[in-house]
Amino acid sequence: PADDGQLLERRYAESTIASDISKIMDSMVQKNFVNFLLNQREKKSVPPMMPEDPEVSAFNDLLKKDFAIWVHNKGDISK
Predict the structure, then answer these.
(1) Quick one: pLDDT at residue 34?
(2) H or E stretch at 33
(3) CA 74 to CA 12: how far, in whole Å?
(4) Cα separation of 17 and 78, whole Å?
(5) In this structure, are residues 14 and 63 in contact, taking their beta carbons and an 8 Å threshold?
(6) DSSP code of 76?
(7) What is the pLDDT of residues 36-67, one digit of tens each?
């Protein structure tokens, strides 16, 4: 009986922490997405001075794909 109370309190504390972490992660995803959109807008408004390095372009493409996969997986986990 006393152990049940402690177990219930522990579960409540763990779920509270998980909820807080989830809120923080959602906030970070939203901020990153807004920054991504702002950066995209800046790229379109500023003409490039010189051609982009192919390695940098490949790296940026990989980052975009990883970010999209991460956001997609984040949505699957929360459901």
Answers:
(1) 92
(2) helix 2-45
(3) 23
(4) 15
(5) no
(6) H
(7) 999 988 877 766 566 678 888 888 888 888 88
